Amino acid sequence: QIRIFRPPSYSGTMALILLVSLIGGILYLKRNNLEFLYNKTSWGVFSVVLILAMTSGQMWNHIRGAQLMYRNPQDGQWHYIHGSTQSQFIVESYIVIFLNAAIVGGMFMLSEVGENKKDSGKKKFYALCGLAVVAIFFSFMLSIFKVKHRGYPYRLGTLCVCVCVCVCVRAFLCEDRSLY
């Protein structure tokens, strides 16, 4: 009988010590001016980036050891989206994080329409651009979902058309134009 002795890995402990040291060093150097901790924009960007990274599936790729992409041996085509719901490619998670980031950008455009824009034409332009970005990239996300779930009833553009019709009816037929 041979006993196998594996020495403990201290890489996780060292990474934690390094992270705590970096945060402590930054707080020590900036001890006279801690206003950056109260900056809502910095915290918002940090939160959105963290959420996008966590929801894209990168940890699943790391745990399962997923392929970057797949080349079909019959026709030689590269596949970026895995056809199964039980697996995904690394490129697929990058595509998902890009689409989610574009949707967040469109939502940001919609939420910031009223800020610092005195011209109603500019407000309407930013609102419609934000709406178009959200609708287009969300419909791309739906099409990826349809590839993974074959029986999904919606197509590319279905949601986009519905949202655009609702907003156009709201914007051009209603008397209350407080959004613009």
TrEMBL record:
Name of the coding gene: 20215438
Main location: endoplasmic reticulum
Full protein name: Tumor suppressor candidate 3
Residues passing through the membrane, by range: 12-29, 41-60, 94-113, 125-146, 152-173
Primary role: Subunit of the oligosaccharyl transferase (OST) complex that catalyzes the initial transfer of a defined glycan (Glc(3)Man(9)GlcNAc(2) in eukaryotes) from the lipid carrier dolichol-pyrophosphate to an asparagine residue within an Asn-X-Ser/Thr consensus motif in nascent polypeptide chains, the first step in protein N-glycosylation. N-glycosylation occurs cotranslationally and the complex associates with the Sec61 complex at the channel-forming translocon complex that mediates protein translocation across the endoplasmic reticulum (ER). All subunits are required for a maximal enzyme activity.
Subcellular localization(s) per the UniProt record: Endoplasmic reticulum membrane
Pfam families per record: OST3_OST6
Species per Swiss-Prot/TrEMBL record: Helobdella robusta
Family: Belongs to the OST3/OST6 family.
InterPro entries linked to this entry: OligosaccharylTrfase_OST3/OST6
Keywords for this protein: Endoplasmic reticulum, Membrane, Signal, Transmembrane, Transmembrane helix
Recorded GO CC terms: endoplasmic reticulum membrane
Topology in the lipid bilayer: Multi-pass membrane protein
